[in-house]
Input
Amino acid sequence: MRYNTRHKKEKRPYNIVAALAVLAIIMTFMVTIAANSRSTALRATEDEIIDDAVKRDSVKSVAAFSKVYSVLISPRCVNCHPAGDVPLQGDDSHLHTMFPQRGKDGKGILTMKCTNCHQPENTPGTHTPPGSPNWHLPPADMKMVFEGKSPRELAKQIMDPTKNGNKDMKALIAHADDELVKWGWQPGEGRTLPPLSHREFKEAWITWLKNGAYAPTN
Amino acid sequence: MTSANNNMGRRSFLKAALLAGGGMILHFHWPAAAKATGAEAGAIAEESYELNSYIKISKDGIVTLLNPNPEFGQNVKTSMPMILAEELDIAWDQVVVEQADFYPERFRRQFTGGSQSIRQGWSPLRTAGATARQMLILAAAAQWNVPSDEITTEQGVLHHQQTGKKGSYAEFASAAAKIPVPENVKLKAVKDFSIVGTSKKNVELNNILTGKPLFGMDYNTEGMLIAMIVHPPAFGLQLKSLDDRVAKSMPGIKSIFVIDSLTGAIVQNSFDTTSFTRFAVVVGNSTWEVMQAKKALKLEWAEEPGRTFKIGSPGQANAKTTDATYPAGLESSDVHRRQMEEFSKKPGKILRKDGDPEGAFKIAFRIIERTYTAPFLAHNTMEPVNCFAHVTSDSAILYGPLQAPEFTVGTLSKRLGLPKDKIRINLARMGGGFGRRAYGHHFIEAAVISKHLNAPIKLVYTREDEMTAGIYRPTYSATYRAALDKDNKLLALHIKAGGIPETPIHADRFPAGAIENYLAEGWQIPSNITIGAFRAPRSNFIAAAEQSFLDELAMEMKKDPIDFRLELLERAKTNPVGKRNDYDASRYAGVLELVREKSNWGKTAQGVHRGVSAYFCHNSYVAEVVDLVVSNNEPKVEKVVAAIDCGIVVNRDAATNMAEGAIIDGIGNALYGELPFKDGVPQKNNFTTYRLIRMNEAPQQIEVHFVENEQDPTGLGEPPFPPTFGAVANALYQATGKRFYNQPFINQLTSV
Amino acid sequence: MATINLKINGNKHRLDVDPSTPLLWVLREHLNLVGTKYGCGVAACGACVVHLDGEAVRSCVTKINRAADKEVVTIEGISEKGDHPLQQAWEQIDVPQCGYCQSGQIMSAAVLLREIPNPTDEDIDLAMSGNICRCGTYLRIRKAIHLAAEIQQGTK
Output
């Protein structure tokens, strides 16, 4: 029998990030990009990443997504994108102590609203509540689960406007600079950082999107 | 009625008489938090007559009862005065309860620990109540000019039937206080009890529920500074250097220094336990400011050489001393595990041997051998360690959480160079104890800090300071071996158990006495990690091992686990093996029979997995049946039925509350409790990583059944705790088909 | 140091205090409201729960500047006469052992009862698993919350 409560996560069978770039060569599926994907107005917010149009390059896109994926499934991201309604904690992504619930708006319920403990900034010390001004999980009607998703599933989910908060490419690109997303790179004492720097992540994120936002085959 | 010799504290009566001589006593109420509760505190008359150390009666009829023992949640502050009120024959709602200060000349054994408060307080408190009643009767007899044995009492009223004379206790309190203390008094028959055996609410309820200052942590007084200490981060390290350049100029900081709480010249006792006697101290205006400055200290640590020191017996000034040793080195749990495995294989010190166990194992058809382990545990009282101290050149006042002031006052006296009677220890309500507060190191630390500064200070530990400061439940290992013949008959039992740094064996307890060929061996491994009493010391582990093994043995022998235990107890009752057996086999069997009946043993509902366990410790017998269910692939204890024989139950609902708590504590520690070490560093330092049982993990129901008898009361705070571990393990086996040998069980439950 | 305006239990205070000081220590040491307890300092035990604009915040990690100009209610202010339905229920059930965690328990339970006037055991688990009681009075807390719900609704 397994004991789920704060169960240490099983090794993910889909953790095959390194192989993805190769697989991408035979990639055939493409994800629809919403709205103004060819708009010349589309610009990244940082000058060094300038790309005016989507170039459909599945190899490049999927290779970039493999990097993106490695970040999304790192504890700093996956912990607040859980499969269930209880966030995860720690580098081992165990269920959050005291089992706070997502709630309708993703901000907790009853006595356990996120901001009852999570302040606008990290609380100093180790194992103290991390913080950011808008600390929350995805809402109940759009859970944006990362936990347990394969790269393909995750890529498709991110690009699905019915699941991503109706974000178009512009909004998706902007999301890389969301304050709560960026918290992942300033997570406070004792927490490991995502495997890429924020800049590398953002570059990969935009590369993936702007080369057609292809989903890997697996 | 029975009678009692009034030897319960002659000194307390002498003192009382002296104080009462003038008629009026002005009581020193300090601190405000320790003031009387129950009836309206404001109504307490300043003028009251003291009949003895425990009982004061005011002119306007307020009866004040003093609770002698420190309160840490076991409810002595209500149940001890209930015993006084019973024999004094006063209505409970006429009573006001006050916490006594530490005052060994007036009160016996002001020690909350070993589940002994009620057991050892029973006779003195009854006698004190009955004596005061008798003095009131004698006063009335003199005034009414009638024979004293014709006077009856009822709920605070004296009555002489023949003449129809009546008077309240208050009317006679002044005269009674001057009467010589009677040598002999009559005690009530148990059947006539009207307070003892009922349920009285916690006298402190209102103060707790409205957030009044009750705890040491809440204490504040004019000019008081906050002090915090920084102890080494690892056992085996000591302070090498301190750089306070940044910290000392931070806001609110008054002083930073290094100090020794104990010095080599002082003979310690076993309740002075502490690993860290030299530490950095930061003192300032407020807790938060001191916390910040503490973080800004730059400290260097060095490995401490092994330390040997003299240790004496607590409470005895001229007791023989022995040498205690803390070995050098930085210890780790994986090394501990290997050491314990090695020691398990070597011969231990024989603690008891009956018959010919070696011979029996030689001829055994089958040998079943199992090893059980448990980790270090931290007490984790909800209120962190703290103590107020104000030490001047000629006196000391201390106030804080302390279970055993009598074991600390001697060391304080030596360390401060003050006579004991110049040291006042006032007893705060404690935010939990569990054994942790039997150790008075924080009182000594607070005192030396106050003395150094010549100022009143409150020493405050952070949660991290407390969890990493030592005095843990030791880590243990026990190997049980059973020799069976080809008919599954039990030929012999062999227990070899030890720990770091003590063995958990109680060699003369069950199943000793029930088995023809029996061998108990113990071993121990020295350590510099300090340990201490933790709710039912040693029992809390060995009960788990023994009761799990007996369960597995019953299974192997194809016997019902309760029947198997009862068979063993029958042997211990009718034809005991050996002479030193320290339990009553009939009472032991009694709780098993009661739990069998109350739990409907043998009629388990679908989806419910059951485990049973029973244990005797602290003079009481407890059997428990745990019902475990599996939902969402997770086992959860849903219900526990407990049968307890602790003799007369003084305060029924409070006793039930304590038993419920002990069982929940047992479930929590069995499943989650663990404090691992790496290179001397405790690997958990707060509740974020140290998992304590929470609401959603607590059972839905706990039934507590007390055996009804007229035996004098015995322990209750500890006895329901040890059996829970085994009952949980045995229920987990029923649910999973796997035995759980190593605590905490969560580790096995989560390993894929 | 900064000057901060606070409203605690209906009373206004103006304090000069380091704005990063947690609300807990301001309550306990500046305002002498010691019913709110220090247990862990890292929002893990719930002994320090107070209401901040009605939410059950953990005052040990809530900086005082976050409480500025907001309504703070502590155990001392949850009722005028100590007769909040939860206090009544706690008394009837005789919940506490050591009592140290109980003000935090009551402050959490108060938010639960406001949001769900008649909570189930499951609701209680969801709302109360953030409050540790080391003495293990959980069953009584559960029972007392049900009783308080009845008292609050006038059915008891």
Notes: The radius of gyration of chain A is 17 Å.
